[in-house]
Amino acid sequence: MSARTPQPVAYQRNALAPGVLAAIALFLAPLLIGNDWFLLIRFVVAILAVIVGWFAVQARQWWWLPVFAAIAVIWNPIYPFDFSGPVWIAAQPVAAVVFLVAGGMIKYRPTEGDAKKR
User: Fold this and answer.
1) Which stretches are transmembrane (predicted)?
2) Interaxial angle between packed helices 16-32 and 38-58, expressed in degrees from 0 to 180 and rounded to the nearest 10
3) For residue 33, which of 78, 90, 72 has the smallest C-alpha distance?
C-alpha cells in the first residue's frame, strides 16, 4: 500500500455555494412577494450579492461586479424600492439564474502563498 500525496486544487469555486443559496431564495421569492417573509428574501439576496461580488473581485473577474452591485442595490432591505407587478415577479428567477451562472463561472486559482496562509 502506498501513501498518496494530495494533489493541489486547480480551481476553487468560492461563489458557487452563495450563488446556489441566493438562487433558492430567489426561486421562492415570487411566492412570498407581499408577505412579511419577503423582507428576509431581500436581506439574503443583498448580502449574498455582496459576497459573490467579492469573490468575483478576488478571482479578478471584474465584469461581475456591476451586476452584483446592481442586485445588491435593487434587493436592498434598508431603503427598499417599491417594485411590483409582473416585471418584479419575473426579475426574481432572472436574478436566480444570474447567481447560478456566476457561481459556476467565477473560479479562483489558489497560489502557493495561499497554501502557506492556512
Assistant:
1) 15-33, 39-57, 62-81, 87-108
2) 160
3) 90
